[in-house]
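Sequence in, structure out.
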Amino acid sequence: MNFGLIFTFLVLISSSNSAWLDRRSESYECINVTSDIFKPLEPLSPTDGPVTRCYNLELVLTDLAPDGFTRPVWTANGQYPGPILQANHGDRMIVNVFNKFGDPATIHWHGMFQKGTNFYDGPEGITQCAIPNDDKFTYNFTIKQNGTYWYHSHHLGQMIDGLKGPLIIYNPKDPYLGKYDFEYVMTLSDWYHAPTSILLPIFSSDSYRGFAPVPDSGEISGLGQYDCKAVPKNSTCNPNNKIATYVVKKGKKYRFRIINTSALVHYILSIDNHPLTIIEVDGTLVKPVTLNTIPINIAQRYSVILDANQEIDNYQIRAHITDCTAIDNKTLNFDSAINYDVTGILKYDGAKDKPPTSNPYHLNTSEECSDVNPNFLKPYVEQKVPQNVIATFKALVNFGAAASGRGIALINNSSFVPSDNYPTNQKIVDGIKPDELSNTDNPYTYECDSGDCDDAAVEIFIINNTTDSHPFHVHGHDFFVLYNGENNSDIKSPQKSEFNFKDPVIRDVVTVLPNSTTVILYSANNPGVWLFHCHIQWHLSMGMAAQLIESPSIFKNTIIPSDVTALCAKDRG
């Protein structure tokens, strides 16, 4: 198949989908994209107006050794992490996905609001059926955001097995342009040697009594160093695996776009002798704040500016893994040989090829399993916090057991189970009322019937009744973090007088500490069906999720494209 053809698309949009009303014919080239994450990223040039960026992603199993241990990896275009996708603010992005995995697949565009295109959000059973093996599907959406994002599978454990990559959206008017000379992307991840086709059935079985499986290693930008003496017999393992190395020039400044793409682990990142100045959090610019160490939970992103002002030498990049979930001897891989201190190298141009001898910053234990202190992070441009709260939900997070004995996760005593062959958004469009959905759909419904839905808001009290910390994500929205309770201190509802309405940080993933409450608030301006879930993949598989059904009286008039609904016909076939 020739994926490099020039495609001509005629996009016919129903007038009911006013958010992306567009009737046009346009020619553009679809790129078989590849990228080298260790080379400075070339930002896209500004254009006179929005353009279409078209990428081809072929999903293929490829034998790779990210940490030295060779195993099949679920890749996009044969790369792990997947290739870096780029667009400018206002551009339309078209991604042709050719599924050659041998398994169904989906892709979620993490942090994209998908206004008017809820059906391209990606989570299976919520906004689409899975893409069958040996089939093609096209995601097509307009981006009116800026910042650092990523894409990943939302089908079973495929994200854990490798289907994930960066997504960078540029703003030609970014006020930080000119404050740095070059850009890099850096991903942090955990890694398992056994594929989830083995791990998930054991983890989900009625007889399993352990906790979330322990990874075998950690990685910086897809590279780690596993102790090959610990591998099973007849395995292939390279004890001299490459080390993640970023080259900088003395006297230059670098923007590092950092993404935690893990399934389970939290990181604390630092680079010896180089404080990091945060300028962006989860796609929102913030006023600069300089820290020596940065805690970053699953799915969170930070842009930082690094000043290469030290002596020409090699300096250690340190990504410290912190345990935020329980482990016992019944847990899969509890005796893992994982190295909790993952390392890379910041290499000055001209430095000798020798290991770094730099000293680490002090590791602050208060940063373990938590976010950067929200009081440090202030939006670059003041954002008005909506005052018209049209719905308030309390989400009590817990663990429990099904009648069969299988471990499950619960929100308000209900464990989420997706309808893989009949997505919830299709049900709403088909006329099924939200109150007719199953308890296992975990639906929470609200309507914006005012003229100004940007000022209409939804408030969620996330009440963590477990001893784990949980990184919670809302699809289709970012949110104000009004209150981020401390560990073991305030599981009871906080008072409004304790909320930050003046200048709260805006995120799309927030860490809810053990036995505490976090309060988030977002604008109810995006009709659709949006998943709300813990981003620990093992907890999501246990059912730690709910569905936010936003303005169904409006959304029910949506015309879901025929190629999206056709996936379900193929799935049932």
